[in-house]
Design a protein that fits this description.
This protein has three helices and five strands, in the order ββαβααββ. The longest helix is centred in the first third of the chain and has 22 residues. The relative contact order is 0.17. The protein has one domain: GMP Synthetase, Chain A, domain 3, CATH 3.30.300. The model has no long low-confidence stretch (mean pLDDT about 95). The protein is an alpha/beta fold.
């Protein structure tokens, strides 16, 4: 798992920040530890950037079965009554699913729950 702040990301202005996260689980067993690392990175970034951290870009490089598990896990976490879910629900979340060759298999965006 790699996380880094993105500069001048589309969808943000000069006073806003975006975080880019890439997960590369080699197996189903690797997904949960990588997801936990992603969670920790997002929590750390959000604590530093506060409300100015508005966009989280997640890339998942894996096989299609792992993509499905990631999507299910993210959906379950998103609706939980937890502080992490609250962080996700107040930011735009862009997810890109890539195969092992880097070709895009899917992409979606989740707007903040309070968005008009």
């Amino acid at each position: 798992m790699e996380a880094k702040e993105l500069e001048n990301e589309e969808g943000t202005d000069a006073a806003e920040y975006a975080l880019g996260v890439t997960l590369t689980p080699d197996s189903r067993r690797d997904l949960l530890p990588e997801f936990r690392l992603m969670k920790d990175a997002i929590i750390d970034w959000a604590s530093k950037r506060g409300d100015r951290g508005v966009l989280i870009v997640v890339n998942v490089v894996a096989t299609s079965d792992i993509h499905e598990i990631f999507d299910d896990l993210l959906a379950k976490v998103y609706v939980q009554a937890s502080s992490f879910a609250g962080l996700l629900q107040t930011r735009t979340l862009q997810v890109t699913l890539l195969d092992l060759n880097g070709s895009q298999c899917g992409q979606y965006e989740v707007e903040p729950l309070d968005a008009p």
